[in-house]
Design goal:
Aldehyde Oxidoreductase, domain 4; seven-stranded mixed beta sheet; five-stranded mixed beta sheet
């Protein structure tokens, strides 16, 4: 499938004389602006390249700027959030490579919140590179072409005689050279060339894109064999600016005692002891958020002080009586009882969301039937950097700083809360010390603004502790998935019934229907690719009792765990090799239009360009099992075996084989993991490897120990002593990443999230193959020690 960009809604313009970089701290002789989004596609018919007849004055509101100064420095404004996934490096790398820029002369600036100017800035859904790789290549090619045209004009030679090397243009016949800086002023007078005159580099001409660290040219690495990272030196030296690194004059510090039950209000507060703590300035009661709360703060009691330590000490001294009557059923929320209730509900017919063939006939006429239920708990994102934000209100304006994944949501929310025009709201996105979806919800930014307003505009920093983060997160959903299948005499699957129950993220934004949304069902349910005659998929009712939010790979986690575990159980029931059985279920190679499976969302991607491709499923399965020396599902040794799982999410395909040993005492040792990954072209292989390694460690935690539980409406985990994440000794000894379909004729997919979903089922399938013990409830925790499953 072609990745042609000729129909992409991309606009380019030379804005060197418009002064659009004023106030941004960047300057250049040549400044290019680029814009692409769905709105552009609906604009009046106008040239997509060139400076004439651009629609509706869009050059005042582009997505990205590229600036070349007379000293040769190249500045690129990055509009996506950097939270460890390396996007600030990868996006800039694409432009720099297509331009021919020397990496040592490239700088990046982080865009403030302004979607009208910079386009979508909500960094989620593993879509940054998926959406911007091809447009950014064209941006870089346009800059390179203009520099070559400027050189041809200077030398009075045909442009075909001019070639860009590294940060300079060469007149090939004579060997004369001009640097980018020397050409920038002349280039600034030129129109942007039309599309037919842009030549994208071939794979063989790339210097940065698609290169492993040891393939990068000299000067792009800190030391031999290490990858380039545009802000790597600042990060490791402590110079990089994260949320808590922002210090303003006259700043106050605050922490908040939030309602322990979602929706509870304050009955009474005794703050007399808190006000006696040295450094405490004020204690403030904040209104409790109504349900549905969306991104609004939960409310509570804020302690404002001259230091974070004083604020924390003052909060400890508060005596608060909470009124749970306003929380309704949330006050009685018990995760153990809720699990039992969901399992009981899963036995009842649900709301049908996809049907194919006659499932009842298939089940009733089966030679064999098999059913199983799987449970996944709540989890918190728990980024290493807890939420923090600073807000300063002055002269009818508000300025805020924070590690936000969705800067525009913060900006819009601040404008609404403070009754300001958007032009009077500035949100600076700092580096994020991890996000995983938590920091797409800017409630912590709103808290800082509310308190700055209360303190007559003084800047206020609100700091969350680890306990705050765990108690008051936007939690990953809890899930029960019940599956039933029918076999014929040849042990082929003839019917598939999947009933899935999970509280929905929709409960944040309106009345709770108790059923998953189309988007949530798209993550592993409706887009299930198996070639089975009769399929029925249903949802059952599951109401939300805490804030439900995005978590890395979202609903793909429970759906992949259930489906891939069930496939392994069916293979065992049929007496077949798990890999062979899985390939058999996929059926013939074909490209499935998800709309034909009643799945309209498809991660917001064109279903023709991004179909469900069973050949790509097959490729990653075969690659992972070949690399792992798949032994046909038999044990490698006593209590040691391989487990397999595969999943498609965020337009990428990931298959995982885990080599797992279980000791007599129930200790799980992961000797090796092989991950075959197909995201199409691998723009920055080192960052893909890093993200998949991180996904593997996170997935191991999800499988082994990570969970949030509740009793009497309150979250029971406080810190990493009881909200468990893997330690070094618990992660795999070896992780091997294998690229599949790393070629340009495959549409690019996401990389940050797709590695997580298949980890838990692959691990549990390996445990079953090694011990005969089937895990259907996550986390595994002590199940292998106690013998309970």
């Amino acid at each position: 499938m072609s990745t042609s960009t000729t129909t992409d809604p991309l606009l380019l313009a030379n804005v060197s004389r418009r002064g659009l970089l004023k106030g941004l701290g960047a300057a250049g002789a040549l400044v290019l602006a680029a814009r692409w989004d769905l709105a552009v596609a609906a604009e009046d018919e106008a040239p997509k390249y060139g400076a004439d007849a651009m629609p509706h004055g869009w050059v005042d509101n582009p997505n990205v700027f590229i600036s070349i100064a007379v000293d040769g420095s190249v500045t690129i404004i990055n509009h996506r959030a950097e939270m460890g996934q390396g996007i600030r490096t990868s996006l800039v790398m694409v432009i720099a490579d297509e331009m021919g820029a020397d990496w040592s002369s490239v700088k990046v600036m982080q865009a403030d919140a302004d979607e009208a100017r910079y386009g979508n800035q909500n960094t989620d859904g593993s879509r940054s590179m998926r959406h911007f790789f091809e447009p950014l290549r064209l941006c870089g090619a346009a800059a390179r072409t203009m520099l070559e045209q400027a050189a041809a004009q200077h030398w009075q030679v045909p442009v075909s005689d001019c070639t860009t090397t590294v940060h300079q243009v060469i007149h090939t016949p004579s060997g004369r050279a001009l640097s980018f800086g020397e050409l920038a002023t002349t280039a600034s007078e030129l129109p942007v060339p039309e599309r037919q005159f842009l030549r994208l580099k071939t794979r063989e001409q790339w210097r940065y894109i698609n290169k492993q660290p040891d393939q990068l040219p000299p000067g792009t690495t800190e030391k031999a064999g290490q990858p380039m990272a545009i802000d790597g030196r600042d990060i490791v030296s402590g110079k990089a600016i994260y949320g808590a690194d922002v210090i303003l004059d006259n700043m106050l510090f605050a922490v908040i005692a939030r309602p322990p039950v979602y929706g509870a209000s304050i009955q009474s507060v005794d703050d007399s002891a808190a006000l006696q703590v040295p450094g405490v300035v004020k204690v403030v009661q904040l209104p409790t958020a109504s349900i549905a709360s969306a991104f609004s703060p939960l409310g509570g009691v804020a302690v404002i002080a001259n230091s974070t330590w004083a604020a924390l000490s003052g909060r400890k001294a508060l005596t608060i009586t909470w009124d749970n009557s306003s929380a309704g059923d949330n006050a009685a929320y018990d995760s153990v009882a809720f699990k039992a209730a969901m399992e009981a509900e899963s036995l009842k017919p649900g709301k049908v969301v996809r049907t194919q063939g006659d499932i009842q006939q298939a089940l009733n006429s089966a030679d064999q039937r098999f059913e199983a239920s799987y449970y996944s708990p709540h989890m918190a994102q728990a980024p290493m950097e807890p939420p923090v934000a600073i807000a300063h209100i002055k002269d009818g304006r508000v300025e805020a700083w924070g590690p936000v994944q969705n800067p525009q949501a913060a900006r819009d929310g601040l404008a609404k809360r403070l009754s300001l025009e958007a032009d009077n709201v500035t949100v600076h996105a700092t580096l994020l010390g991890g996000g995983f979806g938590r920091k797409a919800k800017p409630d912590f930014v709103f808290e800082a603004a509310d308190l700055s307003q209360i303190m007559d505009g003084r800047p206020v920093r609100v700091q969350w502790s680890r306990e705050d983060d765990l108690h008051h997160s936007f939690f990953h959903t809890v899930s029960v998935d019940r599956l039933e299948a029918s076999f014929n005499k040849e042990s082929e699957v003839t019917g598939w019934l999947h009933r899935s129950l999970s509280p929905s993220i929709k409960s944040l934004f309106g009345p709770d229907s108790g059923h998953m949304s189309d988007i949530e069902l798209a993550m592993g349910v409706r887009n299930m690719p198996f070639d089975i005659p009769a399929i029925q998929q249903e949802t059952g009712e599951a109401m939300a009792h805490v804030r439900i939010g995005w978590f890395r790979s979202v609903y793909n986690i429970p759906h992949a765990f259930a489906i891939q575990s069930f496939v392994a159980e069916l293979a065992h029931k049929a007496g077949k090799d798990h890999r062979d059985f899985l390939l058999e279920l996929l059926g013939p190679d074909r490209q499935i239009d998800p709309r034909n499976q009643n799945e309209p969302w498809n991660y917001r991607e064109d279903p023709i360009r991004y179909p469900i491709d069973t050949a790509r499923y097959r490729d990653v399965i075969k690659t992972a099992t070949r690399k792992a020396n798949w032994p046909g599902g038999t044990r490698i040794a006593a209590r040691r075996a391989l487990g397999l799982a595969v999943h498609h999410s965020f337009m990428s395909y990931a298959a995982v084989v885990m080599d797992v040993e279980v000791s007599e005492q129930g200790e799980v040792i992961i000797h090796r993991v092989d991950i075959a990954f197909d995201c199409g072209p691998q723009v920055n292989p080192e960052r893909i490897r890093s993200q998949l390694e991180g996904a593997c460690a996170m997935g191991v935690g999800i499988a082994m120990m990570t969970q949030i539980t509740a009793g009497d409406g309150k979250v029971q985990q406080d810190n990493f002593h009881n909200y468990l994440v893997p330690r070094h000794s618990q992660v795999p000894k070896e992780i091997h990443i294998h690229a599949v379909n790393d070629r340009l004729d495959v549409p690019i997919g996401g990389a940050g999230e797709p590695g997580v979903p298949p980890i838990a089922p692959a691990l549990c399938n390996a445990i079953f193959a090694a011990t005969g013990q089937r895990i259907r409830t996550l986390p595994i925790a002590g199940q292998l020690r106690t013998g309970n499953s």
